[in-house]
Amino acid sequence: SNLAHELRQPLSTIESIAYYLELALSEANPKVRAQLERLRDSVAQSDNMLRDALALAQFAPPRPVTVDLDELFTEFAAPHFDLHLAAAPVTLDFLHARKMVETICSLFAHYGRVPHRAQVLTGLEPSGHVYVRVSGSGLHVAASSLALQLLEQIAAANALSLQVNLRNPESQEISLEIP
């Protein structure tokens, strides 16, 4: 926790400087504005990676309760994702479910190299299992390794089936099946 604070403090300072430079240079060269935006995106990525590392370090055993994944996706994904939600409530650890949805949305929202809209689909398989499919393009896989480790840990702890397909930068997908 102290380490997180120590690392977040300079990130916050960098983000503030970028914000004020952007205000001061509102009429600046488009290349300067693009670099400032890139700096702010890098701060957001760093903050997300720090958050994922802390979640991995502080991972607790699951305490299952009824969770509405559609509600969580609405909270974290809207309005930047196309949502097609039809999942039944599931039994999962609430904090794990919340972190899982937040992490997936963060991957597609913050790590994407190009502006795009990701799509979230949830529903019920004929087997009675709930499925979650989040797809998009342009994820930077190297920057997301901690997030993927966290998703794998959540899936294993909660007996979820997780499939990650990020090899094709034009069509990337994270899928979950929840009994």
Strand order of the largest sheet: 2-4-5-7-6
Integer average pLDDT = 85
Q: Number of helical segments?
A: 5
Instruction: Tell me the radius of gyration.
Output: 18 Å
Helix content: 40-55%
Apparent shape: globular
Low-confidence segments, ≥5 residues, pLDDT <50? none
Q: What would you call the structural class?
A: alpha+beta
Q: What summary fits the major beta sheet?
A: 5 strands, mixed
Which properties best describe this structure?
7 strands, two-stranded antiparallel ribbon, 179 residues, five-stranded mixed beta sheet, 5 helices, alpha+beta
Commentary on this structure:
- There is one protein chain.
- By secondary structure, the protein is an alpha+beta fold.
- The protein has helices at 2-24, 30-57, 69-77, 94-110, 145-157, and strands at 64-67, 81-84, 90-93, 118-124, 130-136, 161-165, 172-178.
- The strands form 2 sheets. Strands 2-4-5-7-6 form a 5-stranded mixed β-sheet, covered by helices on one side. It has a two-stranded antiparallel ribbon with strand order 1-3.
- Helix 1 (2-24) packs antiparallel against helix 2 (30-57).
- 25% of the residues are buried.
